[in-house]
Design a protein that fits this description.
mainly alpha; 4 helices; 71 residues; single chain
């Protein structure tokens, strides 16, 4: 069995935003909610919200248009 890292290696802004974008792509156009993000993510949404201010600010900073995504 091979060890697979379950958390991010780095917590720089760009690494956090890249994880947010990765998870947004993985849900195939569905709205990226906090619940949908936390399940597969390698970082919790609270880390992002503390860093960038709010969930909407996280999405904006990552360039994810939450209003254009399907529920």
């Amino acid at each position: 069995m091979q060890f697979e890292l379950q958390t991010l290696e780095e917590y720089f802004d760009e690494a956090l935003l890249a994880e947010l974008r990765r998870d947004a792509e993985a849900i195939n156009g569905q709205r990226l909610t906090i619940e949908r993000f936390n399940s597969p993510a390698r970082v919790q949404s609270t880390t992002l919200r503390y860093r960038f201010g709010s969930w909407q600010a996280d999405l904006d900073k990552a360039g994810i248009l939450s209003t254009c995504l399907k529920n």
